[in-house]
Amino acid sequence: MFKKVLIANRGEIALRIHRACKEMGIATVAVHSTADENAMHVRLADESVCVGPPAPKDSYLDIPAIISAAEITGADAIHPGYGFLSENARFADIIEAHNITFIGPRAEHIRVMGDKIAAKEAVGKAGIPLVPGSKGELKSIDEARAAAEKIGYPVLVKAASGGGGRGMKLAPTANDIEEAVSTAKTESKAAFGDDAVYLEKYLTLPRHIEIQIIADAHGNVVQLGERDCSLQRRHQKVLEEALSPALTNDERVKIGETVRKAIESLGYLGAGTIEFLYENGEFYFIEMNTRLQVEHPITEQVTNIDIVREQINVAAGNKLSFTQDDISFHGHSMECRINAEHPKTFAPSPGKITSFHAPGGPGVRFDSAIYTGYSIPPYYDSMIGKLVVWADNRELCIARLRRALSEMAIAGIETTIPLFIDLVENPQFQAGDYNIHWLEKWLAEKA
To answer: How far apart are CA 416 and CA 422, in angstroms?
Structure first.
């Protein structure tokens, strides 16, 4: 097992990784920017190294600085968390070249799954169902028109290197395809340095369903069930739940086993998530995230599996500590992403937290690195914590979430807590009757 792990991230996920390491008897190294010198993960880690100024490109994305921090402190492994360098194949290659273990997938799998066109080809061959779409990158507007006519309108133009909704444009009719392709290519080039785009059929009212997997280097792959991430705003997840209220148990077993076999055939290592659109009983692959997901805690709650601990375990060359036969699902779990944002305008709200009270009691977990007196910096993602609740069934889970939200108090900044307090009272949400467009429609009606 590793003796010392450098955590190449910040905020709640850095603290989450630190806690897993400490329980395993592993020393930790926190890296931080000058803006994060008083962050909780820096305070609790065994060692800390400042890797640069506030801007991510000069600190958390500075590969030489992070490698230097690992070498100076004698870390024998690096955990990237999510975001930043977590899906950077070059980073994984460089780490391994310095005889440090990357706690994540092999670089080859990061590289393939980071290219949405290559990812579709790989998983399609492995037996995972795909959204009808173009074959590879679109080389011209004429090729785009021909592909769209074959697929059938409406279609989505998507960046091959995209994520978070960037480089994604809808073309409802043939009159819209040229502008959609042009805009998507421009956005993709600006955001990812790559203007390659492709087409997919636009599904009208789908849900967003994802399957969590984890694999070791000995050929063992286990799927840990699904999460429903359909409540989204601007393609960003807002509230997730496990298991999905939309799936039957037969559908759950079928898609889980399909994914497990496919990942096994790819020789994958570590944790990963396969994301689907689900409509009318059919699953359509969107992408694979080759990292830990923000919403991993709800899977942990319904399976009693510590996913971060298993990531570290398999990266060290050990077998998974469980098999597929050991996995069963217990109760229901939900996660609210609490952001430092105005609950109606969603304007960022950095600043000093003047007082903070975390909710507690049975089945309540708050993954966060905030504390009274901590100042939220304006340079990073606005998520400041994840409220996770678990109960025996979905109805009780909602009741527990309602209670936990009413207990939480964060003063000095605006947060999205009021948004969730309203959401849990909505009859459609309570019934589990929603799709990926529902939340934005509900927010528009409220406004």
So the answer is: 10
pLDDT tens-digit readout, 385-401 = 999 999 999 999 999 99
> Pick from 104, 127, 131, 112: which is nearest to 259 by CA?
127
The per-residue pLDDT for range 105-116, each reduced to its tens digit, is: 999 999 999 998
In this structure, is residue 190 part of a structural domain?
A: yes
331's tokens: 């109760």
Active site residues: 291
Compute the distance between CA of residue 434 and CA of residue 104 in angstroms, rounded to an integer: 33
Sheet of 332-339: strand order equals: 282-289, 270-279, 207-215, 221-233, 236-242, 332-339, 383-391, 364-368
The string of DSSP codes covering 336-351 is EEEESB-TTT--B--E
The string of DSSP letters for 152-194 reads -SSEEEEEEEEETTEEEEEE-SGGGHHHHHHHHHHHHHHHHS-
Q: What is the pLDDT of residue 164?
A: 66
- Structural domain ending residue among the three candidates 140, 173, 201: 201
Rounded CA separation 61/193 (Å) = 16
* 3-class SS of residue 141: helix
pTM value is 0.91
Domain count, the chain: 3
**pLDDT tens string 276-312:** 999 999 999 989 999 999 999 999 999 999 999 999 9
Same domain? 213 vs 194: no
Q: State residue 230's pLDDT score.
A: 98
Same domain, 59 and 166: no
Q: At what angle do helices 296-303 and 307-315 cross, to 10 degrees?
A: 100
Q: CB–CB of 229/208 below 8 Å?
A: yes
| Euclidean distance between CA atoms 105 and 116, whole angstroms | 17
Query: What length does the chain have?
Result: 447
In a domain, 118, yes or no: no
